[in-house]
Design goal:
2 copies of one chain form a homodimer.
Chain A (H helix, E strand, L loop, with lengths): L4 H10 L4 E4 L2 H8 L15 E5 L6 E5 L3 H6 L7 E4 L14 H12 L2 E2 L2 H11 L6 E4 L8 H8 L4 E4 L1 H8 L4 H23 L7 H14 L3 E9 L20 E10 L2 E10 L5 H20 L6 H14 L11 E3 L6 E4 L13 E5 L2 E3 L3 E3 L2 E6 L4 E3 L8 E2 L1
Parallel strand pairs in A: 1-6, 3-4, 4-5, 6-7, 10-18
Antiparallel strand pairs in A: 1-2, 2-3, 8-9, 9-10, 11-12, 11-13, 13-16, 14-15, 16-17
Helix pairs in contact in A: 1-7, 8-9, 10-11
Chain lengths: ~400, ~400
């Protein structure tokens, strides 16, 4: 299970909400376990999940055509509520295997509705919140769901809830951390292969393709493939080009992927041959800054304070002019979760928060240098989830 | 250029709109050419594009940290409007190459704002629509942009515009069709490799991985990887499992990807060894249905009528009990564009519409069979963009 029920219940109570409706693929997956790759190609898909404050056990609202995906996914759902039409021939049902029989049983036994909003209104009524106050995630809502539901259920009041979902998800459950571990493992295996692909005469494109293909081969989906060599590394969102990597070039990797719905995001820098002393000194300063943040992370620390600490350490260790807008961010079922390791973020760290901590440096005309790791806040400090060495790689 | 200016201008006039604001990655890319992979990991990213009715030349609102990506992308933008802070060291600027100099010039010369909504309000004011009526794409709006902008600019009125963007994008430009051609080429090359990977003793997983990896190798991003063998092919959203493919099994592929921001979506069925006569007859009926639709597509035909035609042909050609909820959908910068080849859709086809036409059949206990092609409506009929044979593949 992914949902943090204790936290969800508390935040719902604080906001006077009897139920939450999820609309984004991420929030639906968080409440139910239902996530499929094809969400990527649907800007708006009418898949909804509903939890009520009494038990936080989700109902899932899906079209009949998605019923097989609901069975295949590792879901924890109280009631599947299906809508629309979908046709299966029943001519060979007697030959059906267990998977087919479960699908047919789900289609036959689940409450069915003409349309998604009918299913949602029916769900809220049956779950006893027809006259309550509910939060509606506006993240994938293009039809004004709140107003529609208020029209259907006189007495219901609605409020936007996308930001509440983010507040709930800020403290990860064990199930979430397992998935993040897996995504990080895919990501850093592919990163290691990509670093190894650097060689004399090899272009940025080939190195980036190695990362991309190695993620795919491990069942992940690449989401961030910044690979820049020499001065191109100073482009923060660099797209690998046909530039050939030369001896002495720093190659900056800022790379990420999704696996089992969860994100990973890491950075390392590698040099072909002997690094200049400037590259080595600057990179050492960035590592010191990142490690200084990691060794300070513990429950009770304020996210924004980590930012100032990291910048100060980098400045004291070799880059006196170092400036930065943030030194990291939450990581989870969204690639940019809360909190933000940035001056304005006063979030107090708690065990179970998962952070990407980073100290990038961009100097056009010279290079880009960066280190970034994924860590989980523990009871006493933090545990590094990414495991490859925190150093300037020499190839 | 991707935007259909004639159509955008007409639909804006019909809806009394002086400007359109795009919020989704798809609609921003459509107006400006700006699209990057990392959008995937941001549920909500404050990247906005604005066109006004006078010239439909877009302004792009991005954070300063995305300026390099705006330069790298093949964009057509009137004014870049930057917000927030981002730090580059300028110590080595004299050594900067052309790319670095363009980045610095863009950062120096573009209007800058504290936050994204400041940039958006500034843009609307400068473009002369501060007291106008504008459409705001609600597809990625979690902050209530319309209300915020109305508060900033007394006299401005706003209306939701996500559906208007879909109406504009329904007729593709030549630039869009080029990108769709490329995505289809990536997709069908990978599909061909995956079909060739079917062999005695090979599992579904290995065949699906071939598709996934071959898309990645060609620079695409897989978005739809349904590969099911034997009776598992009858699961509409089948996730490849460890089932070993047996002689006589039908293997159903419904596969898609994104390349250069555009989608492809195709289906084919392959049999290992000799197909049963039932598989062959049923599949021939599905091909007849799909080809019947393709040979009827021309400007003036109603999308919903194609649905009934397709179903009737399949029934007359070997599957008398054939039922289906739709026989296809638009395809473009969203994977499900308009129109829908379904009974209720009364869209009259026009040249430049791009359709995925499909006649899938799901019989649990037996098999799933499907064919799906991507076609463009021309002045006189339709052109098939996907090019592989429309047949039951025998491996």
């Amino acid at each position: 299970m992914l949902i943090n029920k204790e936290r969800a219940g508390r935040i719902m109570a604080e906001n006077g909400l009897d139920a939450l409706v999820a609309t984004t693929p991420e929030n639906v997956a968080y409440l139910t376990g239902f996530w499929i790759l094809t969400h990527l190609r649907h800007r708006v898909r009418q898949v909804f999940a509903v939890v009520t404050a009494d038990d936080l056990q989700a109902d899932l609202v899906i079209s009949r055509g998605l019923a097989d995906a609901a069975i295949a996914a590792d879901t924890w759902v109280k009631t599947y509520r299906l809508y629309g039409n979908f046709y299966f021939s029943t001519a060979s049902l007697d030959n059906g295997d267990a998977e087919a029989k479960r699908l047919m049983a789900l289609l036959d036994s689940s409450p069915s509705y003409p349309a998604a909003v009918d299913a949602l209104a029916g769900c809220l009524a049956e779950r006893g919140v027809a006259r309550g106050r509910i939060g509606v995630d506006q993240g994938s809502d293009t039809i004004g769901l709140g107003r529609i539901l208020e029209g259907r259920l006189p007495g219901l009041s609605t409020a936007p809830a996308y930001d509440l979902f983010r507040q709930i998800r800020i403290v990860k459950t064990a199930g979430e951390i397992d998935r993040i571990r897996n995504a990080v493992s895919v990501n850093e295996s592919a990163l290691t292969e990509a670093i190894a692909a650097i060689d004399e005469g090899v272009g940025e494109n080939a190195v980036a393709a190695t990362f991309f293909n190695e993620v795919a081969r491990r069942g992940g989906l690449p989401t961030l493939v910044c690979v820049g060599s020499g001065p191109r590394g100073a482009l923060p969102n660099v797209t690998a080009g046909d530039r050939i990597i030369h001896r002495g070039d720093a190659v900056r990797f800022d790379v990420g992927c999704i696996a089992s719905a969860y994100h990973a995001d890491m950075a390392r820098t590698a040099v072909l041959g002997k690094p200049s002393s400037k590259i080595q000194i600057y990179h050492d300063a960035l590592v010191a800054g990142e490690q200084g943040i990691l060794s300070t992370i513990r429950p009770g620390v304020v996210a924004g304070d980590l930012f100032h600490l990291g910048v100060d350490i980098v400045r004291a260790n070799g880059i006196p002019h170092y400036e930065r807008n943030h030194c990291g961010h939450g990581n989870g079922i969204e690639g940019y979760d809360l909190p933000h390791i940035a001056p304005a973020d006063r979030t107090v760290l708690e065990p179970g928060m998962v952070l990407c901590v980073e100290t990038p440096y961009y100097e056009p005309g010279f290079a880009g240098l960066q280190i970034e790791d994924v860590v989980a806040v523990t009871e006493t400090g933090c545990e590094r989830i990414s495991s490859i060495e925190q150093k300037l790689f020499i190839v």
